[in-house]
Design goal:
The chain contains 12 helices and 17 strands. By secondary structure, the protein is of the alpha/beta class. Strands 7, 10, 11, 12, 13, 14, 15, 16 and 17 form a 9-stranded mixed beta sheet that branches. It has one domain (about 5-410): Vaccinia Virus protein VP39 (Rossmann fold, 3-Layer(aba) Sandwich), CATH 3.40.50.
């Protein structure tokens, strides 16, 4: 059964309306429009969101009873313009610090950056940072609270109906040579929806190449600044070309995109701490669909055994850095395209425990069950009903998307 694709119409093309009409003429489903039409009434959504926020506020108050404030002003209330003027390297300090000696590591293992606010910027040498994969066994369970998303209406995603495997025509370029649409797996849209973006969000895409999810973020129009990171120079070049294909140079949107080259898997060198409102970590994984269909550079080849076995440890360190990157109240979305629990829910649970142990930061899971419910109503998506953590899109014959694991975490301390 062939992989089923979705088409994303490029809002930066001067032929946007024409391209949108082309997609509609194919008999496709406008995914976001379908979700919005199927959701609960707006008044009910507002009530639900207030109830969730109230519960989260109470949870934060309970968690901070043994903490003291480091500043009488609340840095979360800083306007986004002042944060942008200070540059993406500006460190926004957290509102609280741990009491002296609490969770304090040995001097041999750690050293503090001079003058920094506690924990989140602590340097731990990579050689000293151990991930066993068993961290969550004796730890307190990660708490889960419900979530209610606002879906970006500007994101134009078109999918053929269930049981239809028709393709899409090649994209049309406008007079600026900007491509009119592109194709991607229908499950790849979900991590971006889970971010629940706002217009004033400073967003980090940690493993951005080849650029599909970064492009989706730009299509929503809901970001103040987007930082696209990748470690390899070749992949960064691939990312730059992808962005240039769909976003006109010199456009207002292009001016809000920043490319960075940093090693996401190094807890020692990672310094993007407490800066971002939303962080997306689409982590490298065994890529089940690709591995099943391609022999070239297959992660299951015998010469890649060590690399494959080390993946969960690497993913855990990446997620810990993602958790360090987000401000209090901000969210991290972790995603993979594998069915393996060792790369999915176990990575999430172990990373949250280690982030609390070493950096004193705490998180709750924001359940995506409501998003699952709305997507199921479209008839296009199937989800695992066995998940204890996160959401898992399962490929099936009616709509062959995925696999895709998504888990959303929100920082409370």
């Amino acid at each position: 059964m062939p992989n089923k694709f979705a088409a994303v119409v490029n809002r930066f093309s001067s032929s946007f309306e024409v391209n949108k009409n082309i997609m509609e003429s194919l008999g496709t489903i406008n995914l976001i429009k379908q979700i919005v039409n199927n959701r609960d009434p707006p008044k009910e959504v507002g009530i639900i969101r207030k109830r969730f926020d109230s519960k989260l506020s109470k949870l934060q108050e309970n968690k901070t009873n043994n903490l003291i404030s480091t500043n009488s002003s609340n840095p979360i209330d800083y306007d986004v313009e002042s944060r942008l003027e200070s540059g993406m390297e500006f460190y926004l300090p957290p509102t609280h610090e741990l009491k002296h000696g609490e969770l304090e590591p040995s001097d041999k293992e750690m050293e503090l950056i001079e003058g920094s606010e506690p924990n989140i910027r602590r340097i731990i040498y990579d050689s000293k940072f151990k991930v066993t994969g068993l961290e969550s066994i004796d730890a307190d369970p990660l708490l889960t609270v419900d979530d209610s998303l606002i879906y970006p209406r500007d994101l134009q995603v078109f999918i053929h109906p269930p049981q239809c495997i028709d393709g899409f025509p090649g994209p049309i370029r406008d007079e600026q040579n900007v491509s009119g649409w592109w194709l991607l797996d229908g499950a790849s849209i979900l991590p971006v929806l889970a971010l629940d973006l706002n217009e004033d969000d400073i967003v980090l895409d940690m493993c951005a190449s080849p650029g599909g999810k970064s492009l989706l973020i730009t299509q929503t129009g809901k970001f103040a600044s987007l930082v696209c990171n990748d470690n390899k120079l070749s992949r960064l070049g691939q990312l730059r070309r992808a962005l240039a294909t769909y976003i006109p140079a010199g456009s207002e949107a292009a001016s809000r995109i920043i490319l960075k080259r940093k090693d996401v898997s190094s807890v020692e060198s990672w310094d993007e701490c407490g800066i971002y409102d939303k962080v997306l970590l689409d982590a490298p994984c065994t890529s089940d669909r690709l591995s099943a269909n391609q022999d070239d550079n297959n992660i299951f080849a015998t010469d890649k055994t060590t690399e494959r076995l080390d993946l969960p440890q690497k993913q855990t360190k990446m997620l810990i850095n993602a958790l360090r990157s987000v401000r209090v109240g901000g969210s991290v979305v972790y995603s993979t395209c594998t069915l393996a629990p060792t790369q999915n829910e176990l990575v999430v649970e172990n990373a949250v425990v280690l982030a609390q142990q070493h950096y004193g930061i705490k998180f709750v899971e924001r359940s995506l069950k409501r998003m699952e419910k709305l997507l199921k109503r479209t008839g296009l998506y199937r989800f695992s009903d066995q998940q204890q953590r996160g959401s898992l899109v399962l490929p099936y014959i009616v709509s062959n998307f995925g696999p895709m694991f998504i888990c959303k975490l929100q920082r409370i301390i």
